[in-house]
Amino acid sequence: MRDHSLFHQRRLLLLFLLITLTQLCPKAESAACHVDDESGLLGFKSAITADPSGLIASWKRGTNCCTWHGIICRDGTRVTSISISGHPGPGKPNKSLSGVISSSLTKVKFLEGIYFRDLHHLTGPFPDILFVLPNIKYVYIEGCKLSGPIPKSIGNLTRLRALSLARNRFTGPIPSSISKLTQLTQLNLAGNLLTGTVPAGIQHLHKLTLLSLDGNKLSGPIPNFFRTFSNLRILRLQHNKFTGEIPTSIEPLAPNLAFLDLGHNLLTGKIPDFLGKFKALDALILAHNNLSGTVPKSFANLTKIFNLDLAHNNLVDPFPELNVKGIESLDLSYNKFHLNKIPKWVISSPIIFSLKLAKCGLKIRLDHFNPSETYFYEIIDLSENKICGSPVTLLNRMDYLVSFKASGNKLRFNLESLRIVNTLKELDLSRNLVFGKVPKAVSALDRLNVSYNHLHGAIPASATKVPVSSFVGNDGLCGAPLPPCK
Ligand SMILES: *[C@@H]1O[C@H](CO)[C@@H](O)[C@H](O)[C@H]1NC(C)=O
Ligand SMILES: *[C@@H]1O[C@H](CO)[C@@H](O)[C@H](O)[C@H]1NC(C)=O
Ligand SMILES: *[C@@H]1O[C@H](CO)[C@@H](O)[C@H](O)[C@H]1NC(C)=O
Ligand SMILES: *[C@@H]1O[C@H](CO)[C@@H](O)[C@H](O)[C@H]1NC(C)=O
Ligand SMILES: *[C@@H]1O[C@H](CO)[C@@H](O)[C@H](O)[C@H]1NC(C)=O
Prior knowledge:
By secondary structure, the chain is mainly beta.
């Protein structure tokens, strides 16, 4: 399946997997499992009130528990890992478990890893079993519905190598005792309802390769404490309420950091020069903050960057010339740039799939925008510029386009000459000089806006569900949702 817009998620996922897989060592052998393990697992099962898709249906008394779904044993007898996922993969239906995590899991004494992912209806507080299991090292309880505070005693879990409680409903602050978990290589508390500031003690977690605190309600400054994190590859702090500047202490992360997302916060000040030294950086997302000043010239050295998102800040000209080999996704929209032209390094990129340059002061004739490769293009947003001419030649080269937005320009072309590919879901041409009739093919779109143009004739009957505001302001359009044709 062609699915290029997932490049980054995939890249990130791969990074996670590489780190995670090295910690799993599946070994299923034939001897029967230990009686305590069987009893502990069956106790877990009895606290599950619904298993509609039979995720743990194979867990049956008297059968070898090392062969049960999701169970991994060492030496064919002792259970070392439980791995149950409710999200088997794209295209396959989701599964879920309802119930709570039973304390009888503490009988499974050799348990080293718990991997519960996307079980959606698994509820209850922070699992106390973690305090009792003597060998537990890897805990991934993600996409479930655990709630309540993260206990202060979390600092007791000093043997943990990885802890993810991502996408649950934990509330309250991150306990400062978390600083004692110095063996952690991954800490992921993303997608909860955590509040307060980031405890300074996190700086003691020297071994972290991944720190994800995104999608919470954390506030205060981003702590100036990254100097000690020489192994950090992924730093995700986006979608919080962080204030202040991008801390200077992230500079030492330059050799290894591959992914930096500080977007959707309340950050101010300039983009620091030293970010240009982050040669391993693959994705840099600073969007939706209040950053000001220019983009540093040093960005010319970010030759490996695939995903650059600086949208919705207060950045000003001049935008530096970059030396990227192939950008995949670029968003510079809604700053104070006057780029005039689409940068050369964008036009020459062989793998770009998402280009967003809304309100970037572009003054081009769209017919002259002739990217060297169009195969991967899925998303284009050129809204609110001074672009004239016609997008027809460009768009008719793109076989897999999903979204084209160019509202508030001076595009002048016959809408009927635009090829509407099967993949197209969104077309916004509002406030231009588009003429001709509305083609029937637009009814396949999820979102259409051709308001304030010079279209005429009857709106195709198949497009009557489109909101009226998508058609108003044309010279001669008629028919539902507008008034009937005469
Ligand atoms: C399945 O779960 C995933 C991850 O939680 C979610 O993104 C997706 O929308 C779900 N799909 C369906 C069909 O519910
Ligand atoms: C954490 O450790 C302290 C000190 O050893 C102990 O008193 C406390 O009971 C432990 N808490 C839990 C939940 O295990
Ligand atoms: C963003 O920063 C500018 C100064 O650079 C300031 O005038 C403006 O109020 C800030 N906006 C927000 C939403 O904080
Ligand atoms: C790029 O890196 C080189 C070597 O580290 C440095 O000398 C040069 O000044 C940098 N370029 C910019 C524009 O910062
Ligand atoms: C269509 O665009 C106009 C002008 O840009 C806007 O006011 C209107 O809300 C849009 N309608 C829809 C349905 O997007």
